[in-house]
UniProtKB/TrEMBL annotation:
Residues 126-223 form the Acyl-CoA oxidase/dehydrogenase middle domain. Residues 258-402 form the Acyl-CoA dehydrogenase/oxidase C-terminal domain. Coiled coil: none annotated. It comes from the Bacteria. InterPro entries: Acyl-CoA_DH_CS, Acyl-CoA_Oxase/DH_mid-dom, Acyl-CoA_Oxase/DH_mid-dom_sf, AcylCo_DH-like_C, AcylCo_DH/oxidase_C, AcylCoA_DH/ox_N, AcylCoA_DH/ox_N_sf, AcylCoA_DH/oxidase_NM_dom_sf. SUPFAM superfamilies: Acyl-CoA dehydrogenase C-terminal domain-like, Acyl-CoA dehydrogenase NM domain-like. This is Acyl-CoA dehydrogenase. Keywords: FAD, Flavoprotein, Oxidoreductase. One of its GO terms (molecular function) is acyl-CoA dehydrogenase activity. Its cofactor is FAD. Belongs to the acyl-CoA dehydrogenase family. It holds the Pfam family Acyl-CoA_dh_1. Residues 9-115 form the Acyl-CoA dehydrogenase/oxidase N-terminal domain. It comes from Streptomyces poonensis.
Amino acid sequence: MAEFTMELNDEQKEVRDWLHGFAADVIRPAAAEWDEREETPWPIIQEAAKVGIYSLDFYAQQYFDATGLGIPMAMEELFWGDAGIALSIVGTGLAAVGVLANGTEEQIGTWIPQMYGDTNDVKVAAFCSSEPDAGSDVASMRTRAVYDEAKDEWVINGTKTWATNGGIANVHVVVAVVDPELGSKGHASFIVPPNTPGLGQGQKFKKHGIRASHTAEVILDNVRVPGSCLLGGKEKLDQRLARAREKAKKGGERVKNAAMATFEASRPAVAAMAVGTARAAYEVALDYARTREQFGRPIIDNQGVAFQLADMRTSIDAARLLTWRASWMAINGKPFTAAEGSMSKLFASETAKKVTAQAIQILGGNGYTREYPVERMHRDAAIYTIFEGTSEIQRLVISRTLSGMPIR
Ligand SMILES: Cc1cc2nc3c(=O)[nH]c(=O)nc-3n(C[C@H](O)[C@H](O)[C@H](O)COP(=O)(O)OP(=O)(O)OC[C@H]3O[C@@H](n4cnc5c(N)ncnc54)[C@H](O)[C@@H]3O)c2cc1C
């Protein structure tokens, strides 16, 4: 285990500065344009691929950083640049985590490279769990995967929604019901390879924020995938289902399902995205408050403004510390006995919403216009309290973990 320190090591500082440079020079200047266009910023993803930020190697290096801080540090810097563009760059990584968490070594080696493509022909991937009637309530999922033993194929039917990169992805990771009797314990994750017949994009959503990130429905109409596309393999699934049936008979000890394993691994990463957006808005507000003069002095001379900035910075630092703690616990295999991963996501996402709203207030009329970036940052920040589990769901997870009670 690494010795305790609050400082990034030299290598981490170097990576952080490199990412910050990319965020400042490439992402931030393009943010307003892609927000207005509401399209995936392919040229920026390609640029990120060329310098090595959009790649499996980079993601894996950060993911396996021994201190656990690689991913949160990377997310904070990229989302400091712009949340919509950054989500277009890291959305593939969220799908890749689904494969890393549940896939065999062969599946990881086969599919993750195809999620990224190469620098001349970049690709993206999508993780599809949510459905129109199954958002927070994952157990209501209807998308069904049925095994065709004669052909060793799975046949998948259903409609997924709000999928980041849904329909434009080269590789889709789809969560589906394999045993309806078991609720969320009867789910499994599948790879849907490129150009598989039957998978199509439904509606593309026009959104409040993160508009450079593509969000759409994914329709699965008799999609057939080889048996080898079941993440983790059939034997492991059969064993897991047998255990779940046994436990259901005995009275319901909890079993982690495939989708929950993915969410567990990615929550502190989402918290770090929120920290990035909050920090970006705070920095704009601090600069503005120092230079904007009213009543013959900079507005920061007023306690009413300065104290807001003090509170903003304090919350951001607290959010980062919660995030780093959760990431450190995850890499060191510490049990999340107080749902520390959910705590980080809850606090950081609520902080981002609050801090970006305070930034608008500090910029006054300018803050409310698209001449300044804080109104975009505020629209973007609203997503953090919704995806990867809403704030209410984080509170449920935390309070259930603390109390051991089935809080509703
Ligand atoms: C831009 C965007 C990108 C997304 N990307 C993906 C993706 O890539 N893949 C994917 O699978 N999904 C994705 N999602 C879906 C996202 O994870 C869901 O929207 C989220 O889980 C909430 O589900 P819901 O929208 O159905 O809300 P609902 O579950 O209907 O919740 C509505 C409200 O009720 C509250 N609520 C629900 N149940 C309870 C309860 N028990 N107690 C208290 N309050 C409760 C919620 O907190 C919320 O405030 C994305 C969504 C968006 C908007």
